[in-house]
Structure to design on (111 residues):
């Protein structure tokens, strides 16, 4: 694993959320300096800490460790499908219809 890429991605996603290192550290139950060391590739996080960071940033571990995430939407589509499949058929249909309505609204707004 390339820890420089990991650190850069953690910083990128943290800043996208408007989060300070202190905020992320609090969510991950660690020190500010530990987050800083990870972001600067001077510290190597455990797998458990990497998962905590990913969860705190609402991203996948894949998104943190890969330099160029070619198709990030596939991760989200897979997660959405897995969640919908857990519902009974009637609720699956409602979820799909709601999503279709949302997509229609996005398309109308873009015009």
């Amino acid at each position: 694993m390339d820890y420089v890429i990991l650190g850069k991605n953690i910083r990128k996603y943290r800043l996208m959320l408007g989060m300070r290192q202190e905020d992320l550290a609090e969510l991950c139950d660690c020190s500010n300096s530990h987050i800083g060391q990870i972001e600067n590739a001077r510290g190597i996080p455990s797998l458990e800490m990497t998962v905590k960071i990913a969860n705190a940033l609402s991203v996948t571990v894949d998104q943190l460790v890969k330099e160029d995430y070619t198709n990030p939407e596939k991760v989200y589509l897979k997660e959405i499908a897995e969640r919908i499949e857990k519902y009974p058929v009637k609720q699956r249909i409602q979820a799909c219809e709601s999503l279709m309505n949302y997509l229609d609204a996005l398309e109308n707004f873009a015009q």
Notes: The longest helix spans residues 89-110.
